[in-house]
Design brief:
The chain is built from 20 helices and six strands. The protein is mainly α. The protein is elongated and about 100 Å long. The protein starts with 16 loop residues before the first helix and ends with a helix. The model has no long low-confidence stretch (mean pLDDT 95).
């Protein structure tokens, strides 16, 4: 059966293929192969830059240009050639080595240096650097912009609705009012903090041989400062040097990266559930999309499906990311291959993250606040002013202010007339009573509007 979105086993390449396409250059099998080729070429260039390695002298400008063209022109046909070689070698990294030797044979100068492709390397020297470049690219080019789009949309909504009063709920019960904009501003701030944490995770890499000691390197060229040469190669790839390793780079930075993704995703999960609830309460309407159907049997329904979609995919993403963050830093002694097969599922965790981000962004773009519904909940809730009144009473030394308001309001419906009558009975300065007389539930929002406008 031909592979296409209808026959794909995973929804990330099937039903949601269009949502995850931006990750394919980075996290697909093609992405892994192409980045292995980059790493192998950069290592050959690093060897040629070391004067003590006389057998690979400094490359001519023509040879350098050939290598850069090889990288720039690498495409699916070249990747398929590597897969054809792998069918014989049954080893994916060795197939890349043989491919490069094949290509270098096309250039008179580089043909002499073919045996320095993959020189003194273990497969993990190539793979850890390839994965680091892939994860950095997927983060910087795809996922950070997707998070930023949601943050920008939320910020706009927070500013737009900065002054729109809303009944808050703590423990599900009516609580001191807030504004719709302020509640969205909370998410803007939380997401920005964790977004910056994600952006600041430093990808690491190593290229130090079979068990991290440059064993073969030192035997062959003892005069070379191999740690310095390895560090230069890694830094040319835009990565930071991982100085102490076994055969594998420890993956601690990947665990840090995935934990950062998971924290962001958890905040978005919280947002999705809150917005779902506000839609259910009628605080938000959803703009109708021509042709969309909400239910196969109930024509009236406009389901909050985008936020439900986001919630489901965030759960799947975090389950995978959490497993990888816990599993990847653990390796038996100097090496086992359990990390290798686990790394190949990275694309799934980040793909479901991206699917969720697209869904959340789509859902946010359809929201319309419903001021009438917000007011219908808030305006009758005079009991929420109990906090303000008992606090003012404390200032002026009134006797048992909390207890008086508890007796007036706890578990009881109370209207404006009863609340004002209570205020009139208080032994407070007239100036203080005037301020309390002017209070209404919708006016009792503290600094919520200012906080929302400033986010």
């Amino acid at each position: 059966m031909e592979l296409d979105p209808l026959t794909a086993l995973a929804p990330s390449d099937g039903r949601y293929a269009s949502k995850t396409a931006a990750l394919r250059p980075w996290l697909s099998e093609y992405g892994l192969i192409s980045h292995r080729v980059i790493v192998e070429v950069r290592w050959l260039q690093a060897l040629a830059s070391e004067p003590a390695i006389a057998e690979v002298p400094a490359l001519s400008s023509d040879a350098e240009a050939f290598l850069e063209r090889l990288l720039n022109d690498f495409d699916h046909n070249e990747a398929r050639r590597i897969k054809a070689i792998e069918a014989t070698t049954n080893h994916d990294v060795k197939a890349v080595e043989y491919y490069l030797k094949e290509r270098l044979g096309e250039h008179a100068e580089l043909a002499d240096y073919r045996e320095f492709v993959h020189f003194a390397c273990t497969s993990e020297d190539i793979n850890n650097l390839a994965w680091a470049c892939m994860l950095r690219g997927a983060r910087d080019e795809v996922l950070l912009p997707a998070y930023d789009a949601i943050i920008d949309t939320l910020r706009t909504l927070a500013h737009t609705h900065a002054e729109l009063p809303m009944l808050a709920r703590t423990h599900g019960q009516s609580a001191s009012p807030t504004t719709l904009g302020k509640e969205l501003a909370n998410f803007v701030h939380r997401l920005r903090v964790q977004r910056d944490c994600l952006a600041e995770v430093r990808p690491l890499g190593k290229i130090n041989g079979a068990v991290g000691n440059f064993n073969a390197h030192v035997v062959t060229y003892p005069e070379v400062d191999w740690p310095a040469l390895g560090q230069r190669c890694v830094e040319r790839l835009g990565l930071e040097w991982s100085a102490y390793t076994t055969q594998i780079e420890p993956h601690d930075w990947i665990a840090e990266l995935f934990d950062a993704y998971a924290r962001l995703n958890t905040i978005l999960l919280d947002l999705a559930r809150d917005i779902w609830g506000y839609i259910s309460l009628g605080y938000f309407k959803q703009r109708l999309i021509e042709g969309e159907v909400g239910s196969s049997t109930m024509p009236h329904k406009v389901n909050p499906i985008d936020f439900e979609n986001a919630e489901g995919n965030l759960g799947v993403a975090n389950a995978l990311l959490d497993h990888l963050a816990r599993k990847l830093p653990i390796s038996r002694w100097q090496r086992d291959l359990s990390d290798s097969t686990a790394l190949r599922t990275i694309s799934l965790g980040l793909a479901h993250t991206l699917i969720a981000l697209h869904a959340a962004e789509k859902g946010l773009g359809k929201l319309e606040a419903n001021p009438a519904r917000l007011a219908a909940d808030l305006d009758p809730a005079w009991e929420v002013l109990a906090e303000a009144i008992q606090t003012v009473m404390r200032r002026y030394g009134a006797e048992e202010p909390y207890e008086q308001l508890k007796g007036l309001t706890r578990g009881r419906a109370i209207d404006g007339e009863k609340m004002r009558a209570f205020i009139e009975s208080l032994d407070l300065p007239e100036e203080a009573k005037d301020k309390l007389r002017a209070l209404t539930p919708s006016a009792y929002i503290g600094s919520a509007a200012e906080q929302a406008r400033q986010v």
